[in-house]
Please model this.
Amino acid sequence: MSKPVILCVDDEPIVLESLRSQLREAFGECYIYEVAQDADDALEVIDEIQAECTDIILIVSDWLMPGMKGDEFLIKVHQRFPHVVKIMLTGQADEAAIQRVQDEANLHKCLFKPWSEIELITTIQSGLAQL
Model:
């Protein structure tokens, strides 16, 4: 059985690289770290991972992205995979969007850019502890 996946979704490549490097440094080879630059790409990645019979256990998603916004994306994911831990990472989300994801997608936490690496890692650890 392959390792579980943590998926990061953001339209800024530098953010994705920062997330991947911080996650790899904190969790090493325990997980596979996938990235996508928008919600549509992320849904494709999720389908590919599911086809390989691998589990996505956690998603960190930006809110403001081209096409589908992060709240809509996380709600769609929750409808298909309610067990996946969902974290929103944003500098733009309004309170209504955050509340909507909390109500409709069981959002674990919303972090704001620029994020603290310690806060990111402790948030992910607390989310994974719920699994």
Summary: The mean pLDDT is 96.
